Amino acid sequence: MPAHGKHRRPRRRPVSQGIALAGTGGVALALPLIAPAAAGAAPVSGAPEFTARAVAAPAAAPVAVTAPAAPAAARTYTVVSGDSLSLIAQKKGIQGGWKSLYRTNRSAVGDNPSLIHPGLELTLRRDSAKVTPAPAKKKTTDSERASRSERRSTPATPTGASAAQAAPAAAPAAVPAAAPAKAAPAATNYADNLDGWIRESLAIMAQHGIPGTYDGIHRNVMRESSGNPQAINLWDSNAAAGTPSKGLLQVIEPTFLAYHVPGTSMDLFDPVANITAACNYAADRYGSIDNVNGAY
């Protein structure tokens, strides 16, 4: 007896079915539509992904502000009797001495720096405040940012023993030789006679802006004292008043004290002190010892 075969029903898969009609020419075809049971659609493989990046706007460069310059300030001095440009410059500490003071006041003093009158107002110094603007910060460019990014991505330099093997030792820095000190100028030695006294006096007068020449001094010395530094006049009106004329250029003591040049002796009979004081007086009274051709 033949064996009876067992028939099994095929299992149905949980799919949704539908029918769609598609026209091909004049024939309509019924096609089943199979949709996945899952509600969410899977992403398409190979599709490009897009990531949004925030781009920061470049910071504005700060603006450097320069403060306005302060107005200039001036100091003045009123000339009194017995003053000279050299004495004022020394007394007030004028940088550049009498020459700087004369340049500043040339229009007021005139062509002769040795001739100034009491009551004349001199400008001593002009200052002006200077403000240095603050440096503006440098704006970072795209190329600089790229350079920093490249440096960050560069592998670190090996340290320790590996670094010593990888790179040669650095050569020691050369130490510059110290510049030789400048020797101080040698002091000038003057002869202890009329020629040396006049030459030394001229050097001191040049430092204090007192005019005069060798010939002008020598001519007046020979007329007043014949070159004797100890000469004294005991018979003229000055002697009668109790202040006799003394020294190479026959200077009375009140005039010597009023026109004494700093740095010289306070002894009226000292040849250099006598000559410089007399020339300082002559410059104030006559413009220069060169303009004196008689009793003064």
Task: Provide a descriptive summary of the structure in words.
With 296 residues, the chain is of the alpha+beta class. Among the domains are: 73-127, Membrane-bound Lytic Murein Transglycosylase D, Chain A (Roll); 194-291, Lysozyme. The protein is 31% helix and 10% strand. The protein is built from 10 helices and 4 strands; from the N terminus they run βββαααβααααααα. A two-stranded antiparallel sheet has the order 1-2. The protein has a two-stranded antiparallel ribbon with strand order 3-4. The longest helix has 16 residues, at 271-286. The chain is elongated, with a radius of gyration of 53 Å. Residues 14-52 and 127-134 have low confidence and may be disordered.
Features:
296 residues; alpha+beta; Membrane-bound Lytic Murein Transglycosylase D, Chain A; Lysozyme; two-stranded antiparallel sheet; 4 strands; 31% helix; 10% strand
What gap, in angstroms, lies between the N and C termini? 179 Å
Helix count equals 10
Report the strand count: 4
Instruction: Assess the beta-strand content as a share of residues.
Output: 5-15%
Helical content, roughly?
A: 25-40%
Radius of gyration, whole Å: 53 Å
CATH C-level of the domain at 194-291: Mainly Alpha
CATH second-level architecture of the domain at 194-291: Orthogonal Bundle
The main pleated sheet reads as:
2 strands, antiparallel
